[in-house]
Structures are given as C-alpha cells and as structure tokens.
UniProtKB/TrEMBL annotation:
It comes from Thermithiobacillus plumbiphilus. InterPro entries: FAD/NAD-bd_sf, FAD/NAD-binding_dom, Metab_Enz_Cyan_OpOx_G3PDH. Residues 4-117 form the FAD/NAD(P)-binding domain. Keywords: Oxidoreductase. This is FAD-dependent oxidoreductase. It holds the Pfam family Pyr_redox_2.
Length: 350
C-alpha cells in the first residue's frame, strides 16, 4: 500500500497540493526543478500581488514555510522526474538526483513559461533599454524607484502595452492570459504612487479585469490614479532623435494614426505553456491540449484529472490562471490524489 503523493512543481498550486496531503497525515514528496520554492511569483520577483496587495515574497513565503515546516513533506530542489513506471495506486518515479519514489498518485503543478518578448521584435524589446516586461517593471517597483534604465532619468511618460504574447494569432497564441489586465492596471497605480510626476498610459484591445477586479483595479486606476487608457492597435516601437521611444499605431476608437513619445514602454507579457511540457507529456504519459498546456480528463466529474489515471494536474499547467485559482486547484488535486491512497488501501485490503 502506498501512503505517498508525488507532487511536481513548487509554485502556488504545488505548494497548496503538498500542504493538503501533508496536513492530512500522508506523505508529500515535492519535486522542484529550480533551487528555490514558490514558483513564478518568487522566481520572477513579482512585487505586490493582485488582488491582496501583499508582497509576493511574504504571501508565497508563508506557503513555502507551511510545507517546509511539515514533517510529512520531503522536498527535492533542483530535481526533475525522469521516469514513471507502474500504475494508479503504485507508481515508481525515478528522480534526476538518483533517488526513486514510490507513490500512490501524482500531482503535476508544473505551471507556465513567461512569453519571451523577443518574439515580438517590432515592439522594441531587446533593442531599446527602456522597453521592459511587466516582471522587470515589477522588480523596479520592488526597489522603490522608477527610473529609465538607459540614463536614470525620472520618466515623464510610461506606457504599458497589453496582450503581448496573448490573443495574437500571428504568433500562434490564441489565448487570453487572464491576469495581465489586472496586473497592469495595478502596476500603473504602483508607478504613479512612486513617481507622481509620471503619466501612465495603458494601450489595450479590451480590458479584462474579470469579476470584482473591474472596480478595484480598472476604475480605481482610471479615476483615482488618472491612468490614461488608449484603445489602440500598436504597429511598432522606435526611437526618436532625442532618445525617447515612439509608440506608433492606430487609435481604434477614432480610427486615426497615433505616435506618442514615451520614456519607458512596458510589455504586459502573457503566459505560454511550460516549455518542458513535451518532455513532461512523455515522462508521465499524459496528453497535452492543442495549445500545449496539460490536457484534462473530464471537465465536471474529474476536473483535476489528466488523461492518465492516478495523475492529477493543477494551476497554470492547465492554461493561464491566477494565483487564487491555482491554489484552489492545488487543494482540489491534492484531495483527489489523497483519496486515491485510500482507494489503493481498500484494494490492497480486499
Ligand atoms: C507578469 C505576471 C504577473 C502576475 N501577477 C499575478 C498576481 O499579482 N496575482 C495573481 O493572482 N496572479 C499573477 N500572475 C499569475 C501567476 O504567476 C500564476 O497564477 C501562478 O504562478 C500559477 O501558479 P502555478 O503553481 O500553477 O505555476 P508556477 O508559478 O509557474 O509554478 C510552477 C513550478 O513548477 C516548476 N517546474 C516547472 N517545470 C518543472 C519540471 N519539469 N520539473 C520540476 N519542476 C518544474 C517551476 O520551476 C515552478 O516552480 C502573474 C502572471 C504574470 C505573467
Ligand atoms: S488579460 Fe488583458 S492583457 Fe492579458 S491577454 Fe487578456 S485581454 Fe490581454
């Protein structure tokens, strides 16, 4: 009989799954490929999270401590799973550190990969120092000062371009990344708070601050922090002779070309499928959906199931998700994996 659940990935989803299993008195073995725990919010240095406003290092840090402090949890950092044998109730998993783990069930919480803005070269990333991604801008906010990377001046104007690497059929990314509108409206307020003399613009196709976030982020950013929203299609970002950035495109409300000088341009990057997914699919014998995220078994009666019995999935591994949902899915997948251990025990007893 197995009393262990193997969890792969120690972001918000994996940490929630591990805590669910360990707090129920079963063994959680957590395998993380990086040498730190916490997933994207920690690895990429997010600043204050939406919607809580809490610093990522504190909020996710609490999730890490809860798992690290539980004697039922074993953690393997800088490690991957290289081979999975057996079946639901009795898996044997080989780890890249030479150890092997016997587990009754498995939870995949392997998350996503940030879109690489280099794949959108016409928008200036990689060419101009003052074109940044949201994660880079969050790191600047976390340091407490807004300055142009090129020469250290305080920016007169910052603009955030939404949907970079999302909702873009030309580069094969048809999905909405769900959280970047909310993250960007919040970032606009953080920039304004730190640098009141800076005007912040958001260039958008649509604003998707879903659910309660409409009021808390979209309207607040516009009304209290005076963020300027421009409905536009952006063609390119170039440099003017005076060194400022020129954002060229079309204002799609009045159908006129626009060219506005900016000091910093921020790409609101989206969420790609984890670049490891082809390897994960092979090692764990699970299917991927057509965009490359992990496929799910059945939407309503087995929402956290993958296409292989005994292997569950949670969080942004299944598609763009926010942290709250990733945690809820982690708990749900952890519970399903836990229930399988009892199923295996009953089979062994019968
Ligand atoms: C710019 C940006 C800002 C964001 N800000 C917010 C915010 O303020 N609030 C919010 O709710 N959401 C935010 N999000 C979304 C948030 O990042 C995700 O909801 C969250 O990270 C998903 O958690 P996860 O555990 O599913 O995946 P991840 O955080 O991606 O964690 C996955 C973990 O698995 C590990 N891993 C991957 N592959 C393997 C492998 N093969 N073997 C072992 N380990 C592996 C990774 O190293 C990582 O530690 C933001 C997203 C972006 C792009
Ligand atoms: S959440 Fe907003 S910025 Fe992100 S892809 Fe969707 S519409 Fe674009």
């Amino acid at each position: 009989m197995q009393d262990t659940v193997l969890i792969v990935g120690a972001g918000p989803a994996g940490l929630a799954a591990a805590a669910t299993v360990a707090e129920a008195g079963k063994k959680a073995v957590l395998v993380e490929k990086e040498d730190i725990l916490g997933g994207a919010p920690i690895i990429s240095g997010y600043a204050k999270l939406v919607p809580s406003g809490e610093w990522a290092k504190d909020a996710i840090g609490r999730m890490v401590s809860r798992v690290e402090g539980n004697p039922n949890a074993t953690i393997h950092k800088s490690t991957k799973v290289t081979k999975v044998d057996g079946e639901a109730g009795n898996f044997t998993c080989q780890l890249s550190n030479g150890q092997s783990v016997k587990a009754g069930s498995i939870v995949l919480a392997t998350g996503f990969t940030h879109f690489d803005s280099i794949n959108k070269p016409e928008w200036g990333f990689g060419t101009y120092e003052d074109v940044l991604t949201t994660t880079q801008m969050e790191q600047m906010v976390a340091q407490g000062e807004i300055r142009c990377p090129s020469d250290g001046r305080v920016p007169e104007r910052v603009c955030i371009l939404l949907c970079v690497g999302s909702r873009d059929r030309q580069i094969g990314r048809e999905w909405c990344s769900k959280i970047c509108c909310t993250v960007s409206t919040n970032l606009a307020m953080e920039i304004k708070e730190l640098s009141p003399q800076t005007d912040v613009f958001i260039y958008y196709m649509d604003i998707r601050t879903f659910g309660l976030y409409e009021d808390k982020f979209y309207w607040k950013s516009q009304e209290e922090f005076k963020t300027k929203f421009v409905k536009a299609r952006i063609a390119e970002v170039t440099k003017s002779p005076d060194g400022r950035l020129l954002v060229k495109g079309e204002d799609t409300l009045v159908k006129r070309p626009i060219v506005i000088p900016m000091d910093i341009v921020v790409h609101a990057i989206g969420m790609d499928p984890n670049e490891d997914n082809p390897e994960i699919s092979k090692v764990f014998g699970i299917g991927l959906e057509r965009h490359g995220f992990v496929d799910r078994a059945e939407q309503y009666t087995n929402s956290q199931g993958t296409t292989r019995r005994g292997i569950y999935v949670a969080g942004a591994a299944t598609g763009p998700e926010d942290i709250d949902t990733s945690i809820a899915q982690g708990q749900s997948a952890g519970s399903r994996a836990l229930a399988d251990l009892y199923g295996a025990a009953q089979q062994a007893a019968g």
